[in-house]
Amino acid sequence: MPITVLVVDDQELMRAGLRMVLGAHPDLTVVGEADNGAAAVRRARELTPDVVLMDVRMPVVDGVTATGQILESGCGSRVLVMTTFDLDEHALGALRAGASGFLLKDTPPEDLISAIRSVAAGDAVVSPKVTKRLLDRLIAEDPGSTRDAAVLDVLTAREREVLEQIAAGRSNAEIAAQLFLSEATVKTHVGRVLTKLGLRDRVQAVVLAYETGLVRPGA
């Protein structure tokens, strides 16, 4: 079955361009469009698309709020945020709300297609290193955007090490080499970290590592 996509952007030209790019791939189908966050939530509930391509700066309801509402609705859609600026605090808000990652609007078409496929398969597509730059800046500017480190007490010492490695932007293979473990063991640890902390994916793990102070801005 093709991957179904809901395109959300307040610019008609942007929506038309995305529809054209996605339409060139037989495994992707655009099932609907929305020009604001409120409409996006309604359409997501109606259409239950596999992936929602979400703009963050929109009228009526912004993309961050819409992302949270879509994920809380239980419709099963995953959200991929698109933004103009790579240091966009709105994009970070969407990640905190549960988005599976974000891309810049000038992302090459082939990378966009790959990202949609990855998100539909349950992966996160934003580079943790990009998220790290966002968090470095925003947490430094707003020390209040932190969480009690006690939430990490459910982790073993090894799992905390793995979380630190995830926050550093390392892949499973890189973590395995760093900690002298097999990739299969690292994969198991990553799964346990996400499950114990109630996280959707590695992106949210990076955010939590910063918010709890496990990793410090600039480290």
Tell me what you see in this structure:
This protein is α/β, with parallel strands linked by helices. The protein folds into two domains: 3-138, Response regulator (Rossmann fold); 149-212, Orthogonal Bundle (Arc Repressor Mutant, subunit A). It is built from ten helices and five strands. It has helices at residues 12-23, 37-47, 63-72, 89-97, 109-120, 128-141, 157-167, 172-179, 183-197, 202-211; strands at 3-8, 28-34, 51-55, 78-83, 102-104. The protein has a five-stranded parallel sheet, sandwiched between helices. Helix 4 (89-97) links the parallel strand 4 and strand 5 (102-104). The chain is globular and about 50 Å long. The mean pLDDT is 88.
Features of this protein?
219 residues, alpha/beta, Rossmann fold, Arc Repressor Mutant, subunit A, five-stranded parallel sheet, 51% helix, 12% strand
Query: What is the count of structural domains?
Result: 2
The CATH class designation of the largest domain is Alpha Beta
Biggest sheet architecture: 5 strands, parallel
Uncertain segments of ≥5 residues (pLDDT<50)? none
Count of beta strands: 5
Tell me the distance between the termini. 44 Å
Order of helices and strands: EHEHEHEHEHHHHHH
* Count of separate DSSP helical elements: 10
Structural class: alpha/beta
Radius of gyration, in angstroms, nearest whole number: 17 Å
Round the mean pLDDT to the nearest integer and report it: 88
So what's the overall shape?
globular
